[in-house]
Design a protein that fits this description.
about 150 residues, two-stranded antiparallel sheet, alpha+beta, SH3 type barrels, 1 helix, 5-stranded antiparallel sheet, 2 domains, single chain
């Protein structure tokens, strides 16, 4: 049975459809896992019914969450929470040390002072755009400038 181009195209489209179905399912599963891992006491959440509240307690064994909404306390299944409105900070043991900030890199052309093993401070310039080695100007002992091209 020869395969004509229309049949090949149809099988290709079915394969692409199945690929995107699995991909979408994995994305939803990952988003739900992130939501469930972010549920901690003190987090402000919204239930699927539209009720806003603050998580008071999470019972992992029974999959229940105690939510404080205004003066009412609700006990709901943890899957009834649709989104976290205001997350609670991570526990202190997961905090990153304050001396490692992602924005500590020097800007282009900024001078950096580093200390050698001898205790001497060395200042280096990271801007190399002005250093043109082919046309370096050298001054003689009598003060005249001498243009010497470097190869």
């Amino acid at each position: 049975m020869p395969l004509d181009p229309i049949t090949i195209l149809m099988f290709g489209l079915i394969a692409v459809l199945i690929f995107f179905m699995f991909r979408n399912g994995k994305k939803r599963q990952k988003a739900m896992q992130e939501l469930q891992s972010g549920l901690r006491p003190g987090a402000e959440v919204m239930l699927q019914s539209g009720i806003y509240g603050t998580v008071v307690e999470m019972n992992e064994e029974e999959n229940r969450a105690t939510i404080q909404s205004g003066s009412s306390t609700l006990v709901v299944h943890r899957n009834a929470i649709s989104q976290i409105v205001t997350a609670v900070d991570a526990p202190a043991d997961a905090a990153v040390s304050p001396d490692l900030a992602p924005d500590d890199d020097p800007a282009f052309g900024e001078r950096i002072a580093s200390e050698n093993s001898d205790g001497v401070t060395d200042v280096s310039n990271t801007d190399v755009s002005n250093a043109d080695a082919s046309n370096a100007e050298v001054k003689d002992s009598d003060g005249e400038s001498d243009q010497t091209p470097k190869a």
